[in-house]
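User: Second chain of the day. Same drill as before.
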Amino acid sequence: MIFEHEIPAGSRLYFGESARQKRAIERIASEMLEARGFEEIATPLFSYHQHLSVRDTRELVRVADPQNREVTLRADSTIDVVRLVTKRLGRSTAQTKWFYIQPVYRYPTQETNQIGAEWLGGTLSDVLEVTTALFDTLDIRPILQISNIQIPVLISLEFGVPLEWFASMQIERLLGTEHPWLSELARVQRLEQLEAAITKVPAVLRPELEKLAGMTAACEGRDCVLAPLYYAQMRYYDGLFFQCFSGNTLLASGGHFVNDDISAAGFAIYTDALIEARLKGESK
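Assistant: Same format as last time:
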């Protein structure tokens, strides 16, 4: 029996203070991003291309168009923003910095509200600076986690370690391999630990680890941790990427990617998690 007041598990309802917080966060974010030269875009709820964004396509909510072609609800905004800007709007705009405020949906009824931005031609350092500045404006001080997706990819290709072990963080299996330097990398959290580990790993991994070290050094003054073996679930990240946490709650993520030869970087802040953090008094 479904009661009249029930909503599907994973869907969102805002009222009173939570609605006020949502409106305030979105206003602050849009004003700041516009001041930094970003323009707003709202992409269609339905898409033909979400399989390009989501690694596990079983998470897509599927329907059909009038020609019975498969359509899915928007599960991620990044690839659609880049695709629509470059393929549909390309001749009418030279704008390279875009932001969106909209929800995404995952099977069966998971709704996640996001504030995100994509910078065509931008670097990860560019979007990380924007992300941290936005958190500063909202008076939130998250922990910044930095990773490099090429590290687990290279380990898998060069040493035969299944990529799934990294994707599902099966640390006990990683520690049980014949490669003792994996244990060293698994313990890395700080820059000095990474610098020590670089001297002990195979030469093929050192350039990517040095990129991770360089990004971390540039984040001086931030509460920053490293996760060199972490593997992102988004299909399009191709190198360095970051996540922002408050306690165990993920507040934001971002990374660099290439789509149809377009180099870009972007981030997404998870509005629902940020609202909860503010309601708990983790910001003023």
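Residues 150-231 form one domain.

User: Great, on to the next one.
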